[in-house]
Write a structure and sequence with these properties.
The complex is a heterodimer of chains A (776) and B (205).
Chain A: E1 5-9, E2 12-16, H1 22-28, E3 52-57, E4 60-65, E5 76-78, H2 82-97, H3 113-121, E6 139-140, E7 145-147, H4 157-165, E8 172-174, E9 181-183, H5 196-201, E10 207-209, E11 222-227, E12 236-242, E13 245-251, H6 264-268, E14 283-285, E15 289-291, H7 294-307, E16 312-317, H8 323-339, E17 346-350, H9 371-374, E18 377-381, H10 385-388, H11 390-401, E19 405-409, E20 422-424, H12 445-449, E21 453-458, H13 468-480, E22 482-487, H14 494-500, E23 504-506, H15 507-513, E24 520-525, H16 529-532, H17 536-545, E25 548-553, E26 565-568, E27 577-580, E28 585-589, H18 602-613, H19 622-630, H20 642-645, E29 654-655, E30 662-663, E31 674-677, H21 685-688, H22 691-694, E32 701-704, H23 706-712, E33 719-724, E34 727-735, E35 744-747, E36 763-766
Helix pairs in contact in A: 2-3, 7-18, 8-14, 8-18, 8-19
Chain B: H1 5-15, H2 25-36, H3 41-51, H4 55-64, E1 76-81, H5 84-88, H6 91-102, E2 108-109, E3 115-120, E4 132-134, E5 137-139, H7 144-157, H8 164-171, H9 200-204
Parallel strand pairs in B: 1-3
Antiparallel strand pairs in B: 1-4, 2-3, 4-5
Helix pairs in contact in B: 1-2, 2-3, 3-4, 6-7
The structure holds iron/sulfur cluster and FE2/S2 (inorganic) cluster (2 copies).
Iron/sulfur cluster binds next to helix 4 of chain A.
Chain lengths: 776, 205
């Protein structure tokens, strides 16, 4: 902690940190200085001059930009003097010279900093009678972002974001003077996983999203804070709704997690909520599909569960339920075990190929995201972080920018290799994700970790791999350094499931424990393992063999179409609850939308079924579940109850723990031919039912190094046909020379790859013609 | 069309002069301009790969500086200075006669792609005003008559490379001062980092 210093602003003393900018220091003391280009999460540039203030200098008073000037002891600042006012008016008059003032048709109007500040600080009238600068009205700069260059005030927020924060500078200022404009390079669209953030931070309506354009006026929006479900970072968001439709999701600045940013998936993955393909009534599927009432469906299901006590009942859960819902499920399952006197055959499996035991034994070792800012060294060995935990990637990038050393172990995070101090590739780690050398002998590793603060982000890189090497690395780091670990399970509310379900098993356990000779009942809960698991084929076979399958879901998909009965469920925005992120921070999700049709939330189904076991028992509400769930948290001081989480001081979430029990067998002997990865965009039901982003996950491609491409497969074309047994897919080939020889990357959440066997070789042949590469 | 092997080699030599690859951007753009008479999109892609920044970042720099051309220029780029020193020494008439001879307005290129004409701001030869540049090779102390002769000569002789010194001897008048370097040809010679590009004289050999 550094000593505070005192400055004088508009006649009053304020105390501030010594290295703060004037604009920040004033902001913290409640004095607002208007600005366009300055953003607290980005480096200042001093582009717009809106933030001019007067300070006392040895040569008298001077106007300086408060966003680039740091405070100093006894500095005297005036933010309201006549000179400042005149400067503000002047700056605004200049900014408006070329601004089209098309506010009546502009999406930003009503929440536009340019509009608001012109009202508050502007001259009131214009002296400009000449022609304004003209550009073609909005041009698409990517599939989801439009740019209206006439409205742009050249604040460089968007370009700085893409360079500094997301690290994909595909937009830049081009030209000069009056012609200066933001633009992309021809044929290089602004394809960034984070492009939507530029729309949110643009201080005018120059950047707009296709999904929100002309949909609503800001003053008509109903808003509520919530927590995103797209990955386990648990980004804070604001849901914007008008006429009972979700229209927009904005990032909220939570210092512990997303710091205001969102991935485009988190931002744009919501249109499915209002898709007409959504299931809103229970569906009974036998020879035909018919709608049934909730009561009928409950009777049917309870009959199936209770009439054959010795049946095996499997619950395959997905990552999108709330903690309360997992808690309710867990309670139901426990009661069911008792009622059927059959605890062995009743199990809960979590639908994520990357789940394994993880590192939970020692709570002391569990890190927080903000530890990244305090670490000396960050170690990363997990699935591709940019695709699977996108906002965590932003935090890592930020930490690296601030001088933290990043060490990456192969072979998944190759896309961010340039951020690293060391990338440990094929010489250190073979293609089955085992160490080629003793960890202690890895060159340069020790130097970066010995007695240092280390944050290790650890997880499985491949769905099929021995996890022993990860454990070895953990132990080594633990011995040598001051270690904090972040378990890199990436899916939605995985950690909520782990916290609230007594025993979680994996999909491999489901496949192996499935006993054909028994009577089998399977529940799938917001999970689609038939589409995006390495075990898809096997799971599909087992579901087909099952006697009765109940799917709780919103859509008909590869898994739910195999069910006997589909129960319509709800999504985030339609229910109240909590979720737990990867640092065990519990965050609140709030309800703002009505539930469509007769859909119910998972917990309501569990409650009804529980009631069938014991008619004394019933969960009345989410809040009741929440308080029951809270009882089991370890730290009693501050429980993640709705009441606590709704308090202003806890809006950033509450860290709390529960013992975690994951029962997943290690996979030993393997020989990987293909490395299955998850890309940010894929073919999940929610994404393909969100038109704005549905096509972003449609390209099918594979990656391999040049030696494999040219040497092993003798290819010379970037479009090939990939075949294995009865699977045949046309794909684009990308060369990635950070990969080991003969390992092919396959994006398993893209159409058509789920039936491949990762341990068998594939045939690759140059495709006959490009036309065949159709993605539908 | 992607860059020739020799050009890439030269580019890499330039890149090696700098601790950061991207610092070589400006001289590489100069190479690109020399190759095609303007900064083509292909060259931008090439440079972006060579220095490891995105295409639009290269474009940003290329389009900021007016001496990097965004469109194809003629074989000879005639840049006639119109700034103050030249203006008081009657650059207007030089401009008018060049315009008349070539039939071109500002920033125009003729159909045969021989000449591109532009009026420019100070080219740093105020002492020898009025001054012009042919493909950025400076000639000082011009008269309207000499400027026409210069254009005629270019049109007839079609030299592959023009050299400041020689143009000066043939068409120039009063020179500002001696540059005090051995080979003062090439407008950019004195700039470190551009030296590998070679002077106009060297290029002709
Ligand atoms: S598009 Fe918006 S964010 Fe980008 S420079 Fe223009 S005004 Fe700023
Ligand atoms: S906010 Fe300070 S110059 Fe733009
Ligand atoms: S004014 Fe013409 S060279 Fe300087």
């Amino acid at each position: 902690m550094t000593d505070k210093i005192t400055i004088n602003v508009n006649g009053s003393e304020i105390s501030t940190e010594p290295d703060q900018l004037i604009i920040e220091a004033c902001e913290d003391s409640g004095i607002h200085i208007p600005r366009f280009c300055w953003h607290k999460r980005m480096d200042p540039v001093g582009m717009c001059r809106m933030c001019l203030v007067e300070i006392d200098t040895p040569r008298g008073k001077a106007l300086v930009p408060s966003c680039t000037t740091k405070v100093s002891e006894d500095l005297i600042v005036d933010t309201e003097s006549e000179v400042v006012k005149k400067a503000q008016e002047g700056v605004l008059e200049f900014l408006l010279i070329n601004h089209p003032l098309d506010c009546p048709v502009c999406d930003k109007a009503g929440e536009c900093p340019l509009q608001d500040q012109t009202m508050a600080y502007g001259p009131g009238e214009s002296r400009f009678v000449e022609d304004k600068r003209h550009f073609e009205k909005p041009i698409p700069i990517s599939e989801i972002i439009l740019l209206d260059r006439e409205r742009c005030i050249l604040c460089a927020r968007c370009t700085r974001f893409s360079d500094e924060i997301s690290g994909d500078p595909l937009i830049e200022f081009i030209q000069r003077g009056n012609k200066t404009q933001v633009n992309t390079f021809p044929d290089e669209p602004f394809r960034s996983y984070f492009s939507g953030n530029t729309v949110q931070i643009c201080p005018v309506g120059a950047l707009t999203s296709t999904s929100y354009r002309f949909k609503a006026r800001p003053w008509d929006l109903k808003k509520v804070s919530s927590t995103c479900n797209c990955c386990s970072v648990g980004c804070s968001v604001e849901l914007n709704v008008s006429q009972n439709k979700m229209l927009r999701i904005l990032g909220e600045d939570n210092d512990f997690t997303n710091q205001g940013w969102l991935s485009d998936k988190g931002r744009y993955n919501f249109e499915y909520l209002h898709s007409d393909k959504r299931i809103t009534l229970p569906l009974l599927i036998d020879s035909s599909t018919q709608e049934v009432s909730i009561n009928e469906s409950m009777d049917l299901i309870s009959n199936e569960i209770f009439s054959h006590k010795k049946s095996s009942v499997s619950f395959i859960v997905g990552p999108n339920s709330t903690n309360e819902e997992y808690f309710a499920l867990n309670n139901f399952v426990n009661d069911l075990k008792e009622k059927n006197d059959n605890s062995e055959n009743i199990n809960i499996y979590f639908s994520d190929d990357y789940l394994y035991k993880g590192f939970f034994e020692n709570q002391e070792k569990l890190g927080e995201i903000k530890d990244l800012d305090l670490a000396d060294t960050i170690i990363l060995w997990s699935q591709d972080i940019k695709d699977n935990l996108p906002t965590l990637y932003l935090r890592i990038k930020q930490a690296v920018k601030n001088g933290k050393k990043l060490l990456i172990f192969g072979h998944t995070n190759t896309a961010i290799k340039e951020l690293t101090e060391h990338y440990f590739g094929e010489e250190i780690i073979n293609k089955n994700f085992e160490f080629n050398v003793e960890i202690s002998e890895i060159p340069d590793l020790e130097e970066f970790i010995l007695d240092k603060n280390v944050v290790a982000i650890l997880g499985k890189s491949s769905p099929i791999q021995d996890v022993e090497p990860i454990t070895e690395l953990f132990q080594y780091l633990n011995e040598k350094s001051n270690l904090k670990v972040l378990n890199a399970f990436s899916k939605g509310n995985t950690f909520g499931a782990l916290q609230n379900i007594d025993c979680v098993k994996g999909l491999n356990e489901f496949v192996n424990e499935f006993d054909e000779s028994k009577r089998n009942l399977v529940f799938t809960i917001g999970a689609n393992p038939v589409n995006n698991s390495v075990l898809s084929k096997k799971i599909k076979d087992r579901l087909i063999m099952s006697d009765f399958v109940v799917a709780l879901d919103m859509f008909l998909n590869e898994t739910t179409e195999l069910a006997n009965i589909i129960l319509p469920t709800t999504s985030y925005g339609e229910k109240e609850g909590t979720v737990t992120n990867l640092e065990m921070r519990i965050l609140k999700q709030n309800k703002i939308l009505p539930v469509p049709g007769s859909a119910l939330s998972d917990w309501e189904y569990w409650s009804m079924l529980l009631n069938k076991i014991d008619n004394e028992k019933l969960f009345e509400s989410e809040i009741e579940l929440n308080s029951l769930m809270c009882d089991e948290y370890i730290d009693k001081e501050i429980l993640p109850s709705f009441e606590n989480l709704n308090k202003p001081q806890n809006l950033d979430g509450i860290l709390n723990f529960k013992p975690i029990n994951i029962e997943i067998e290690n996979i030993n002997l393997i020989n990987l031919e293909m490395l299955f990865v998850h890309r940010l965009y894929g073919d999940s039901s929610s994404q393909i039912n969100s038109p704005s982003i549905s096509m972003l996950g449609s390209e099918r491609f594979i990656e391999m190094n040049y030696a494999t491409y040219f040497g092993s497969y003798m290819l010379n074309n970037d479009v090939v046909t990939l075949t294995q047994d009865d699977v045949s897919i046309q794909v684009n080939v990308y060369i990635n020379d950070s990969l080991p020889d003969n390992l092919i990357i396959i994006p398993i959440n893209r159409r058509g790859f789920q039936n491949l066997d990762p341990q068998k070789k594939v045939e690759l042949e140059v495709a006959n013609s490009r036309e065949q590469l159709s993605v539908s | 069309m992607s860059w020739e092997k020799e050009l890439i080699e030269k580019a890499n030599e330039i890149i090696d002069l700098y601790p950061e690859k991207r610092s070589a951007l400006a001289p590489l753009l100069y190479l690109a301009q020399e190759r095609d008479g303007y900064i083509s999109d292909e060259s931008i892609v090439e440079i972006s790969n060579l220095v490891g920044i995105t295409e639009v970042q290269v474009k940003s720099v290329a389009s900021f500086y007016s001496m990097y051309k965004e469109e194809q220029t003629g074989k000879y780029l005639l840049s006639v200075c119109k700034s103050i020193s030249c203006e008081i020494n009657d650059s207007r008439s030089v401009i008018d006669s060049v315009k008349e001879f070539t039939g071109l307005e500002n920033y125009e290129t003729d159909v045969d792609k021989v000449f591109t004409f532009e009026e420019v701001e100070c080219i740093g030869a105020c002492g020898g005003a009025p001054a012009v540049q042919i493909n950025y090779e400076t000639v000082e102390g011009l008269t309207p008559q000499k400027s026409i002769e210069l254009c005629e000569w270019l049109k007839e002789e079609k030299p592959e490379v023009v050299v400041a010194e020689e143009l000066q001897n043939m068409f120039g008048g009063v020179k500002s001062f001696d540059w005090a370097i051995n080979d003062n040809t090439g407008s950019s010679y004195s700039v470190p980092g551009f030296q590998n590009i070679g002077t106009a004289k060297e290029k002709r050999i």
